[in-house]
Amino acid sequence: MRTNLLDFTLPALTDWFSGLGEKPFRAKQVFRWVHQRGESDFDAMTDLAKSLREKLKEVAQVRAPAILNEHRSADGTVKWLFDVGVGNGVETVFIPEDDRGTLCVSSQVGCALDCGFCSTGRQGFNRDLTVAEILAQLWVANRRLMEMAKEGLPYRLEAASEGLTPKPVTNVVMMGMGEPLNNFENVVAAMSVMLDDHGYGLSRRRVTLSTSGVVPMIPKLAERLPVALAVSLHAPDDELRSKLMPVNRAYPIEELLAACRAYLAVAPRDFITFEYILLAGVNDSVNQARALAKLLSTIPSKVNLIPFNPFPDSGYGRPAQEGVLRFRDILVEAGFVATIRKTRGDDIDAACGQLAGQVVNRMKPKVIEFREVA
Ligand code: SAH
Ligand code: SF4
């Protein structure tokens, strides 16, 4: 099979080009064609020598997974299901807002971490996505949205940084299917293309990685590619958090917060975002809001409350709106910036935690494999 150029960071592409006997600046040209212009046809890369174009056509390809499904919500949200082979599919969601366009990107087929409130987790785990499969979500989304904008649909185009072609996606959140820190190398490579000035030119503030708290990988992210960090907390104490999120049995809250504090030294913002799902009657009481405020008083933080998004047989419910507001007010009174995440793409099951994709050959969840637990 021909080499897929979506699998390469710029340094890796440069090495690969040198193997073809080509100069580094040729790699840069091709990289810009692919990521900045969304081009996949080597013949259209008009500033390359004809001989190089012919060579590339023989040995290389820009190959994105096929779109199995594209759903457009009444509120402008778009969800794609991508075919990642042998019956597996992963989902990607675009959320347009007034001042930005955010793409929610998947990192794995399913997830091994088995959080009961998460539709992806319920599906089990099949495999990690490749660099190309992660990047293709952004590459395809930009292309499709540009086509839709041409057809007159209300997708605005904006340049992520100066001198770049305006594109619909200005922000990326690694909050789709999977635990990004469990597919570390591929996620870091893909995000580095998102940040590369010759790639998508997104600033580190515009790329957010969300983790359920795979603690040992947080310092590694700090070292390799310190993008904005969001942490899924969901409970103010270990007992409840371990019930909701098995990963907490391996990495309890204090260890997680210590890793977050250390991350702040390199983070692109001076706070960590904590996500907190509100599950009716489980973690949404006044006392739990107070306990959360106390817990987070030791770390510069912002709290993003996510009213639970239902899916069939989840066994959980969404609190009534006044409960959500009460929870937020307690945090605000305690001095926190606390926001309530708007549910987008409700009508197409594109909200947080509803991404199910298609996961086959699933394996049993193996949460505690990272570390021996006494
Ligand atoms: N695995 C990573 C990133 C993907 S999940 C993580 O857990 O952080 C992205 C966010 O959606 C997480 O905060 C997750 O807890 C939340 N989420 C999962 N299921 C949800 C649901 N049913 N309703 C609302 N949010 C949910
Ligand atoms: Fe995995 Fe995140 Fe879902 Fe938990 S919430 S199962 S870590 S994707």
Q: What does this entry look like structurally?
A:
- The chain has helices at residues 10-19, 24-36, 50-59, 119-122, 131-150, 184-195, 217-224, 238-244, 247-250, 253-263, 286-296, 321-333, and strands spanning 3-4, 60-61, 67-72, 78-83, 89-96, 101-104, 108-110, 125-128, 171-174, 207-211, 228-232, 272-278, 301-307, 337-340.
- By secondary structure, the chain is of the alpha/beta class.
- It folds into two domains: 3-61, DNA polymerase, domain 1; 67-348, Aldolase class I (TIM Barrel, Alpha-Beta Barrel).
- The protein has a ten-stranded mixed sheet with strand order 3-4-5-6-9-10-11-12-13-14, with helices on one face.
- S-adenosyl-L-homocysteine is lined by residues 117-118, 175, 179, 210-212, 232, 275, 277, 306, 308-309, 352-353.
